[in-house]
Specification:
- Helix content is 53%, strand content 23%.
- The chain is an alpha+beta fold and 213 residues long.
- Strands 1-2-3-4 form a four-stranded antiparallel sheet.
- A hairpin with a 6-residue loop joins strand 2 and strand 3.
- It is elongated, with a radius of gyration of 31 Å.
Length: 213
């Protein structure tokens, strides 16, 4: 057991824990104490003077109590900041998960529309500029319908940003496809840029495609 001279007030223990906490939560907790520590110091000096005059209990007791109250206030602020950060991160993860699911479905739908040569279906999933680019490449695919089997498909969000009235999302796809029995399965990796406008916030459309593999 620590001797009396080595014991730390409970408030100092909480302050030490805050100082050892990394990240935004640490910044929020310490920022909340920047003003109150100065006030506490002045208060402790006054308490020491009054205690020496015998009008108040020992300054050690009063100082510990004061620091404990300040530390508890900082701890509450720290917990609130941590909770807000976790809530924002969870909301972003949920948003990205929904976007990935949508992008995966659109990948399969657009591939099937390309194989059929279905211009209307491709137009529903792409911007006008991207549709024009796809139609210019369609003759090179050869006559008649094609079939591409998507054997595996992974997707993750690279970035989501606002650009004027448009919201842009960059999605990286990777996996294995089989375009013909002769060629067999082949790996692929590419990035899609999806876009939607504020007036049509429910519809993501392919605006650009870049093959990486």
């Amino acid at each position: 057991m620590l001797s009396r001279s080595m014991r730390l007030p409970a408030g100092l223990v909480v302050l030490a824990a805050l100082c050892c906490t990394p990240g935004q939560a640490h910044a929020a907790g310490i920022a909340g104490l920047s003003t109150t520590i100065g006030l506490a110091s002045a208060l402790l000096v006054l308490l020491a003077i009054q205690s020496s005059a015998g009008t108040l209990p020992a300054v050690e007791t009063l100082g510990a109590a004061s620091l404990l109250l300040l530390s508890l206030a900082a701890l509450v602020q720290w917990l609130r900041a941590g909770g807000s950060s976790r809530t924002a991160a969870q909301a972003q993860q949920a948003c990205h998960a929904g976007l990935v699911a949508l992008a995966r479905a659109q990948f399969v739908q657009l591939q099937a529309a390309w194989d059929r040569g279905d211009v209307a279906a491709m137009g529903a999933l792409t911007t006008a500029e991207m549709l024009e680019e796809l139609l210019s490449q369609l003759p090179a695919r050869g006559p008649g319908p094609n079939r591409t089997d998507v054997l595996s498909l992974e997707a993750h969000v690279l970035a989501v940003e606002q650009l004027g009235p448009f919201e842009l999302a960059s999605i990286e796809f990777s996996g294995i496809v089989r375009e013909s029995a002769e060629r067999g399965p082949v790996p692929f990796r590419e990035v899609w840029m999806l876009a939607r406008s504020g007036a049509d916030a429910g519809t993501w459309r392919l605006a650009r495609q870049q093959a990486l593999l």
